[in-house]
Amino acid sequence: MQTINHADILNAYLSRLTDADISAIANHATKSTNEWLNGNRNSQAQAQAGFYAAVCNAVNNLCKYDIELIENKLGG
User: Is 68 strand, coil or helix?
Assistant: First the structure.
């Protein structure tokens, strides 16, 4: 059985994301955490959706070559 090195995978993504995408993810993560601590169910769901959208946007901004490199890293 092969063990996936999650640190390598996260590093592969982070080293290929733009500073703007990383910043957007971080901002949404902060907002999401704040809503989970202080908000209601609706605001928590909206903040989580915003965080997920920021992550999706960042991944969609990766070029095909970068995605292939990451997928190859997953395959070992």
Answer: helix
